């Protein structure tokens, strides 16, 4: 009888534990669904604001999610930071800060999802922008890395016209590089980046 009572208590406790566990799973599942739904909602809002040219509102919306693990949110934040930096109303100090911020967000997006073509594209763009603040040596030094990220973006999404255009701009820039810059590049790097107009 004692054994039967303790067995019954065990079954009740096990059933109770099981119900608690199932409830926890259900709540966790709902939280995950809610979280993913929220991300999709923010992305939808962000794309609408981007399409409407609402740069400042877009940045304010996305910067709230700067600690997100979602690459889709992060590359959009990198783009929004960069776009805000490009505005004529942005002060020189803010421009610099936003440019470096945008690179950090793009880098984080890449870390979260290496297979995201837009993360590669915006990492390349933001890295190029940072070069404007760090001088010609850094700009030329980063050029090969920038092209590699653009090429990876095209591999991941061959239909993205913007990235193909960016590779074209990259090639054109190095094809028409003035002779004195070529000399600097050759002095600084064993194999400086080069290109042709045909390319």
UniProtKB/TrEMBL annotation:
Presence of the UniProt keyword tRNA processing in the record: no
InterPro entries, per database record: RMD1-3_a_helical_rpt, TPR-like_helical_dom_sf
Protein name: Regulator of microtubule dynamics protein 1
Family as reported in the entry's similarity comment: Belongs to the RMDN family.
Superkingdom classification of source: Eukaryota
Subunit structure comment from the entry: Interacts with microtubules.
Encoding gene, per UniProt annotation: Rmdn1
One Pfam family it belongs to: RMD1-3
Record-linked PANTHER family: REGULATOR OF MICROTUBULE DYNAMICS PROTEIN, REGULATOR OF MICROTUBULE DYNAMICS PROTEIN 1
Subcellular location: Cytoplasm, Cytoskeleton
Keyword Repeat: yes
Alphabetized UniProt keyword annotations: Cytoplasm, Cytoskeleton, Repeat, TPR repeat
GO CC, any one term: spindle microtubule
A molecular function GO annotation: microtubule binding
